[in-house]
Write a structure and sequence with these properties.
about 270 residues; alpha/beta; three-stranded antiparallel beta sheet; 10 helices; 15 strands; globular
Length: about 270
């Protein structure tokens, strides 16, 4: 049995962004040369090699002669690396989405992902609110709030995202009726709908939104126009999309034409 190594401690938001950018660069092709990594990320050869060594130690990439290639298991950027990227943008998206909720007793579902977690943080001062989540990160942050009622699904933990997925999680979501579901996404487009990297996660998220009266997708502009492996929902079933002003206007227009209201926060 192998033991997963811990993710590198970024030390700063700048390094977190660099590591994510490196993984994104590698995900574009079979192999990327060291010289291209240095040029694209504007770093020294020594820094590039150190970052490659850190990520290789976790099984996120494979070093090659003169470069590296992405590991098959690393197509999805781990949540601890993603958490440090575009943090202010995600906060603004979440705060706008939180304003959609009515006052008084209300129930919401919040899925996994860093932007959805920001929605939970934007709701911590609400009262008479019930939050159902399959995110261990979110539950750990808001579960101690006496003014909130927090329900956590069962399920299998996904190591990259700390989400609970599978039949137990699906059954919990299917047994509950919520007013609004806040859904993160790895991809959001008119062509592909709401998508994610993992098919089991997609089924769990689909169960989350199935019994919701309103579905709100929160996704930063890097996800707009992107299509990933597994479809969670068609856009016809999404009521609102909240993103940032970095999203391409032509794709936002195509998304609007599919039915959702699109809300754009300025960054």
């Amino acid at each position: 049995m192998t033991t997963a190594l811990p993710l590198p401690r970024a030390g700063s938001g700048k390094r977190s962004r660099r590591l994510v950018a490196l993984l994104d660069l590698l995900s574009e092709g079979e192999t990327v040369s060291l010289h291209r990594i240095v040029d694209e990320l504007a770093v020294s050869v020594a820094t590039a090699r150190r970052d490659l060594a850190d990520l290789e130690g976790q099984g996120l990439l494979t070093r090659t002669h003169g470069g590296a290639r992405i590991a098959p298991s690393a197509v999805e950027v781990p949540v601890r690396l993603r958490a440090g990227t575009s943090h202010r943008t995600k906060q603004l998206i979440a705060r706008r989405a939180a304003t959609f909720l009515p006052e008084g007793p209300y129930a919401v579902a919040i899925g996994g992902g860093t932007t959805a977690a920001e929605v939970a943080r934007a709701l911590v001062f609400r009262t008479e609110l019930t939050i159902v989540t399959n995110s261990l990160t979110t539950a750990g942050e808001i579960g101690s709030r006496p003014n909130l009622r927090v329900l956590v699904t069962g399920g299998v933990v996904r190591p990259n995202s700390f989400e609970l997925v599978g039949v137990l999680a699906e059954n919990t979501f299917s047994a509950l009726n919520v007013g609004t579901a806040f859904l993160g996404a790895d991809g959001l487009s008119a062509a592909g709908g709401v998508t994610t990297h993992d098919e089991t996660e997609a089924r769990t998220n689909a169960a989350m939104v199935r019994n919701a009266q309103r579905t709100v997708v929160v996704a930063d502009s890097s996800k707009i126009g992107r299509v990933t492996l597994a479809r969670v929902a068609d856009l016809a079933g999404v009521h609102d999309v909240v993103t940032d002003s970095g999203a391409p206007d032509h794709e936002l227009e195509r998304i609007r034409a599919c039915g959702p209201r699109v809300h754009v926060v300025a960054v």
